[in-house]
């Protein structure tokens, strides 16, 4: 078990080695969620993840011989970059074993930092097995991503920083994969403020720590947008800390994580990956379920990472626009006559919407032969605006409805 003194020692060692990331109040999110929301921007670290903290704190303990031989780790991406970054700075050879599904941006960044990357298996656990084999073959020192006291202590420095800025926090909400981050934060926070609540968050697709704490056997999915917390094998050390110091673990859906990513981009102008958005997703989940547990409380949320594939982010932005009604599909049926399309586009334009796509459907429809089905994708001001556009079409005798129906 790590103690507050271990985390305080790590804080001293990390001075000058990592970015002093902001911990700031979000006025808009607070208004939306009915709580005083504070955000810890760990996506502002050089490698865009908190993982640098634990990686350095562990690697500073290496002996000269271990530094000469090199280190190895297994990671879905963020710990990989943390180890590679500090290994490069310390002149230590590094081998990183990553699952084959790891986003390309994380693989490229790890290689750019000078590490040897081995892609193996479909999951973190597959990569772990291969990393242990290579470590034995080449006599490399394993830098475990979470189940290591020095790593846990390094991550716990986030808790010290949050409470230094906001000593009266009621709750800290932390994403959970293997448990290193929440173990460190819980240890620091409970030592300084025993009454504080620590809430962990996992993706519904990977609920393995929640299951381990409750003594159940979990059944998860193959993948999640929060690949940074997609861990099937929770740590033994972290599990014991979580059992003793974490008050609750909640599960969030893929849709809630997606919504949180887009919300943080829109409101805070900050880019986070799926794991980094899990904490905010927990508050959104509670709001949808009319769960009052967060209402009126001073809550710190850890935005643990920002390494998201740009193509994935682009898709999420579009999906977010659809949810908000700012990107809508309208389906209309019209007579297949010259000028009919022009008439519809004129009505839509007068209603103040912008048409981005038009598709005629003649063959795959049950409409009469002289009619045509028309799909329009529109940029609008929101759901009410979409309703106004459909009403304007109806007023001109054109049958139209939302395309998702």
Biggest sheet: strands, sense, closure? Answer: 6 strands, mixed
CATH fold-level assignment of the largest domain? Rossmann fold
What is the count of DSSP helices, taking H or I runs of 4+ residues?
A: 16
How many beta-strand segments? 14
Under CATH at level 1, the class of the largest domain stands as Alpha Beta
Strand content: 15-25%
Task: Tell me the layout of helices and strands.
Elements: H1 4-14, E1 23-25, H2 27-33, E2 36-41, H3 51-59, H4 64-69, E3 71-74, H5 78-90, E4 94-98, H6 104-112, E5 116-119, H7 124-138, E6 141-142, H8 149-165, E7 171-175, H9 180-192, E8 197-203, H10 208-214, H11 236-245, E9 248-252, H12 254-268, H13 278-288, E10 298-303, H14 310-323, E11 327-335, H15 340-350, E12 354-361, E13 371-379, H16 383-395, E14 399-402
Parallel strand pairs: 2-10, 3-4, 3-6, 4-5, 7-8, 7-10, 8-9
Antiparallel strand pairs: 1-2, 11-13, 11-14, 12-13
Question: Would you write up a description of this structure?
Answer:
The strands form 3 sheets. This protein has a 6-stranded mixed beta sheet, with helices on both faces. A 4-stranded parallel beta sheet has the order 5-4-3-6, with helices on both faces. The protein folds into 3 domains: 4-49 and 148-319, Rossmann fold (3-Layer(aba) Sandwich); 53-142, Rossmann fold (3-Layer(aba) Sandwich), CATH 3.40.50; 325-402, ACT domain (Alpha-Beta Plaits, 2-Layer Sandwich), CATH 3.30.70.260. The model has no long low-confidence stretch (mean pLDDT 92). The chain has helices at residues 4-14, 27-33, 51-59, 64-69, 78-90, 104-112, 124-138, 149-165, 180-192, 208-214, 236-245, 254-268, 278-288, 310-323, 340-350, 383-395, and strands at 23-25, 36-41, 71-74, 94-98, 116-119, 141-142, 171-175, 197-203, 248-252, 298-303, 327-335, 354-361, 371-379, 399-402. With 405 residues, the protein is of the alpha/beta class. It contains 16 helices and 14 strands. Helix 3 (51-59) crosses helix 5 (78-90) and helix 12 packs across helix 13 (278-288).
């Amino acid at each position: 078990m790590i103690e507050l003194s271990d985390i305080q020692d790590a804080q001293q060692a990390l001075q000058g080695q990592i970015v002093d990331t902001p911990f700031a109040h979000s006025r808009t999110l607070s208004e939306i969620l009915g709580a005083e929301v504070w955000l810890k921007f760990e996506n502002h670290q050089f490698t865009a993840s908190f993982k640098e903290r634990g990686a350095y704190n562990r690697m500073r303990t290496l002996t000269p011989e271990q530094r000469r031989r090199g280190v190895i780790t297994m990671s879905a991406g963020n710990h990989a970059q943390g180890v590679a970054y500090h290994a490069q700075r310390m002149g230590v050879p590094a081998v990183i074993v990553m699952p084959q599904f790891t986003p390309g941006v994380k693989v490229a960044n790890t290689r750019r930092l000078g590490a040897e990357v081995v892609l193996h298996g479909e999951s973190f656990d597959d990569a772990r097995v291969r990393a242990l084999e290579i470590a034995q073959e080449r006599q490399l020192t394993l830098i475990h991503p979470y189940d290591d006291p020095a790593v846990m202590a390094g991550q716990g420095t986030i808790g010290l920083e949050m409470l230094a800025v906001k000593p009266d926090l009621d709750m800290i909400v932390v994403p959970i994969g293997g448990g290193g981050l929440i173990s460190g934060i819980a240890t620091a926070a409970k030592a300084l403020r025993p009454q504080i609540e620590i809430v962990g968050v996992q993706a519904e697709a990977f609920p393995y720590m929640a299951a381990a704490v409750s003594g159940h056997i979990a059944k998860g999915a193959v993948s999640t947008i929060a690949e940074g917390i997609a861990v099937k094998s929770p740590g033994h050390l972290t599990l014991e800390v979580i059992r003793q110091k974490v008050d609750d673990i909640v599960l969030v859906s893929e849709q809630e994580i997606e919504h949180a990513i887009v919300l943080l981009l829109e409101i805070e102008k900050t880019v986070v990956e799926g794991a980094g958005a899990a904490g905010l997703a927990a508050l959104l989940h509670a709001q949808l379920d009319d769960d009052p547990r967060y209402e009126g409380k001073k809550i710190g949320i850890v935005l643990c990472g920002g390494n998201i594939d740009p193509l994935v982010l682009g898709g999420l932005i579009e999906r977010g626009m659809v949810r908000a009604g700012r990107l809508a599909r309208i389906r209309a049926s019209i007579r297949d006559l010259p000028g009919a399309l022009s008439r519809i586009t004129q009505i839509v334009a007068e209603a103040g919407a912008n048409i981005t796509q038009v598709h005629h459907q003649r063959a795959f429809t049950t409409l009469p032969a002289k009619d045509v089905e028309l799909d329009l994708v529109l940029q609008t001001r929101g759901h009410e605006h979409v309703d106004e556009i459909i009403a304007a079409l109806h007023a001109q005798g054109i049958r139209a409805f939302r395309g998702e129906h």
